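Note to self: the last two entries modelled the partners one at a time, which told us nothing about the interface. This time every component goes in together.
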Amino acid sequence: MTDTSNAHQLGFSRRSLLVMTASALPLAALPSFAQSDDNDIKQVKSSLFGDRKIQDGRVEVKLPPIAENGNSVALDISVDSPMTESDHVKQIVVLSPLNPEALVSRYTLTPANGKAAISARIRLAGSQTIEVIAEMSDGTLWRGKKPTLVTLAACVIG
Amino acid sequence: MSTIRLSVPETAKKNEIIEIKAMIQHPMETGYRRGMRGEVIERDIITLFECRYDGEIFFEGEFHPGIAANPFLSFYLKATKTAELVFRWTDQTGQSWSETATLTVT
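The predicted structure of the combined assembly is written out below.
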């Protein structure tokens, strides 16, 4: 009902209001389904990294462009690092802006890994952009992102 | 008993970087699903994975409900010596499962 009164105030015609509501509906409806109420990505990031600067780059994230089943999606991560005693990846954090819990997983690496690359299978509660943050031995933080379209979300059926 | 599957090369050249794959059979029940009568299905997940090389932990994974059932991981190891690799998964209650593999470095 607020829509109608607003339209009057702003002087919209009946038709333009109809068109506007129709086009706005799908957009408005999506977030309420997709956005989980208590996804805590900001909180998780600040509890893990405080207000330290996160730079984009050095982290490559691979996800299928379309994931048919959100219950198991292949995730490949590789971080540009020589993995030596003095310069290596200390941890890799996988974050989701949409799942019921933002923190998906966290990996601790050492120079013994020789190569900073991992693969895992994750659950996705809907189409979203997965964020991966790598913490280096020098304390710097680097980020990579990858969007994916999920046709069957996790949690709904399986 | 949970089934564990490992893929570790039997031999490697010194300083060769090898890929290791490890999977354990586990439902990774999220705690967000509901059963037939609308009751919440209790959470049951593996929370920690550790891999040791000659007794030392060199790779660790912390799992949350966003990890798919039958958690699979692939990661790398720089082969420096002939030693045992121990893979260990621990669930939220502290129960754990482990498996070993021997890597021979030539």
